[in-house]
């Protein structure tokens, strides 16, 4: 009875964790650049319970023992890095990445990375003669040198497929490259740590040189930038809803098993009394 109580309790906690992951995915299905999270189950402390030698009868081919588990758990939460569909916006500072890339953004004084590319220019508080490229929450977008990307005020700006910010002051004036947006290519996307705000950061002790592909100046990249487009969330609502119903039913079964175990314990205690 104790084993069934422990197994049901552990399973219910893990199922609740999985439901939270699904709820978070559904809540972010309209968040640009969001990558859905996934969690798989694995057995907890499975062991083989040996049976009495009395069961070793002639003709038996199975070994003496049976598996005993203590529920399931979610060992880790992984990110589904499949690209989401592109939505055309017509806004030249809305950017979508194609390929294994992430934008570099300054968040709370540090560098974070994201696929969410709904950027826009705002006046630069540090220099009234400039405009700064920021994300949808006002975080500065970084250039390849790791500094906030700025352009002179009152210029027309466009961004090409390599992430270069091109500016010009008039119809017949030459185009100037004001800077290039920081775009990194992770060696292993799973090594990045997801944080709040649809951002990813480097785990403690991991450097950018260890985490990202290092390319020589001028070397071609596999990542392309689409200006005027936004990458939508890759959450599949029908898949999430199906899994949610399965998890809810499993949770109900585990709750019923826990209730039955509790009733059996109560009955045993009353018989002992």
* First-residue to last-residue Cα separation: 18 Å
Strand content: 25-35%
Helix-strand makeup class = alpha+beta
Residue runs with pLDDT of under 50 for 5 or more positions:
none
Shape: elongated
Order of helices and strands: HEEEEEEEEEEEEEEEEEEEHEEH
Biggest sheet layout: 3 strands, antiparallel
Q: Quick one: how many beta strands?
A: 21
Helix content: 10-25%
Radius of gyration: 27 Å
Please state the average pLDDT score: 90
Looking across the biggest beta sheet, what order are the strands in? 10-9-17
Number of helices: 3
What does this structure look like?
- This protein has 273 residues and is an alpha+beta fold.
- It has helices at 2-27, 208-211, 237-272, and strands at residues 37-39, 42-43, 47-49, 66-68, 72-73, 77-79, 86-88, 95-98, 102-107, 110-114, 120-123, 130-134, 150-152, 156-159, 164-168, 176-180, 183-184, 193-195, 199-201, 224-227, 229-231.
- 24% of the residues lie in helices and 27% in strands.
- Strands 10-9-17 form a three-stranded antiparallel β-sheet, with no helix packed on it.
- Helix 1 runs antiparallel to helix 3 (237-272).
- The longest helix is centred in the last third of the chain and has 36 residues, at 237-272.
- The protein is elongated.
Quick recap of the structure?
This protein has 273 residues and is an alpha+beta fold. It contains 3 helices and 21 strands. The strands form 9 sheets. The protein has a 3-stranded antiparallel sheet with strand order 10-9-17, with no helix packed on it.
